[in-house]
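Repro case for the chain-ordering regression, as requested:
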Amino acid sequence: MAVATSARPARTAPQAAFFYRPEVRQAIYQIVTVVALVVLFWILITNTAANLKRQNIASGFGFIDRTAGFDVSQHLIPFDASMTYGRAFLVGLLNTLLVAGLGIVLATMLGFVIGIARLSTNWLVARLATVYVEVIRNVPVLLQLFFWYFAVLKSLPVPRQSHVLPGGGFLNVRGLYLPAPVPEAGFEAVALTVLIGVVASIAVYFLARRRQMQTGQRLPVLWITLALVVLLPLGVFIVTGQPLSWDYPELKGFNFQGGMVMQPEFVALLLGLSIYTASFIAEIVRSGIQGVSKGQKEAALAIGLSKGQSLRLVVVPQAMRIIIPPLTSQFLNLTKNSSLGVAIAYPDLVSIWSGTVLNQTGQAVEVILITMGVYLTLSLITSGFMNWFNARMALVER
Amino acid sequence: MKRIAKLTTAAAVGLLGTTVVASAQTKTLDTVKQRGSLSCGVNVGLAGFSQPDDKGNWTGLDVDYCKAIAAAVLGDGTKVKYVPTTAKERFTALQSGEIDVLIRNTTWTTARDSSLGLIFAGVNYYDGQGFMVKASLGVKSAKELNGATVCVQTGTTTELNLADYFKANKMTYKPVVFEKLDETMQAYLAGRCDVYTTDQSGLYSNRVQQPKPEDHVVLPEVISKEPLGPSVRQGDDQWLTVVKWVHYALLNAEEAGITQANVGEMLNSTNPEIKRILGKDGELGKGLGLSNDFVVNVVKAVGNYGELFERNVGTGSRLKIARGLNNLWSKGGIQYAPPLR
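-- result from build under test --
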């Protein structure tokens, strides 16, 4: 008699008990770790607050609205002793951003030049670049700042014996004084024209590239840009009757009044940081260029590009993949090194906020936390932007 | 997986445990006695007040006060650990317990007495803020300084007083703010600024260290009150009383004519006041937690206030500052101490 074989019943893998399942275990460990971290931070914060209270040390962030009572030598926004600590914080932050931003631009430009110079076939140029990199890299940056500040200071004359510059400027130990442009009634038209010119030249750049891809013909983009951004506003400027007057610096008593001034602290910090960071960037650029396979350069030369063109159009774009991540680190280093400005009287964030305000209010914990938060934010923004840039530069491989 | 779980929970429990231990009200006097040395916060280097010499020995008015307190508490003025502090970190060092007492030419102000968790224990030097300019500028008074550039150190009362003075006198100025004294002086000497401002004692002390002191002029105006004194943490009344009475002991010793040289023979004096001060009569030190003859130890270690002053900032030093306000109340100054009884 044939036995009817029933179909095997569909069966899932044997289920272990609840706590032995891997996903459950993972979830539990993660939850325990998160809870432990949260508890740790809560304990740290409440313990600190309790200790501060017990010792009668003021705490809380109310001090930000108190009157500052001190002046600052360089402020990009109006500031005087009757404004609040919060405003002083903004002044310091803007000074830091100014020196960090300009420093990054200068350091990158100089670094690229030196890095490429090190690979030059001209023996002298290559050796000079090597000496530059080796010397500047190996001297501590604070000493370099002192050198630029005090060496430069000692060589400049006092205000009463300033060097006179053509055009109404003066150079002395208090700074570089230049005539300041004072825009008058019709200046908005010129400013608007400049803006339109910039936007138009960006559009021209993209259109010219598309045209080159499609038809192979190249437009002289550089000249067109110059015409749009410089000549056109200049024309508008003349047509509207030159609505610009100049405020000349004059020696009154101890110092020059009027005009614009670049203070020696700012110049020394900018120079010192740019030159120092440029030496590191030079090495990064050199390693990037040497990391591109030699065949690329030979092929570029073989199809008729000049040496400069092969560098610009073939080698460096490929080298950027290697250059950008360490370059990000150098930008962050420069931003954080700007805090050394306090040693040469540059009123950056650390000098004003973690220096003067901390000392006057005594609230070290809050002030240092805010400073750390600011530098962290700046660094995250910089590296976020550079990572986006890096992703754009990445070669899409098949 | 199991190990990670165990480690995580162990770490969490461990951290929980450590932070729950709340420190009770610290008795600094007991701590100092137990440790056997006094941890004293001083200036990194200000001639006349606290400065290390080329062998690393600290000298100065504030340093002598440290020695006096150590002599009173431990019987020996050499049992001091000097902790040099900048203007920025001095209060944090005291708040955190790194130092027992801060004797660092610090001005006594409301803000510092209240919201920093410290309390001042007297005034060991009455000072005021002044200005120093180069003699070549031909300036005779601070009221002629409109538009000048002023070098100043960061975070001190100096910055605030400077702003107030110029505003009150309707003058403008440009500040150049440094962190360290050396850089401030270098910038002033290089001509970066016209004026250097700090307490008068600091002006004299910096001026005398220049190769040609006559090239610099200290202007006559004193624009603020700067009572400099030692400070301790709040909440420790016993320690505050000890530091206060060491200062008063120095003044009382000068009033009674007890000097470092004659304290030995003064021990045999029959004068009841001197017997009381030197602990031969009565129980002077008991309530303070010190030995009854603590004044003897103090005067043996550093002398009386007058000797201390003259040795460090007066005629016996390079600064040559006159006693002025810092003289005893009976001699035209304002140093007045409650009686030791």
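Ordering looks correct now. Residues 17-24 of chain B have pLDDT under 50 and may be disordered.
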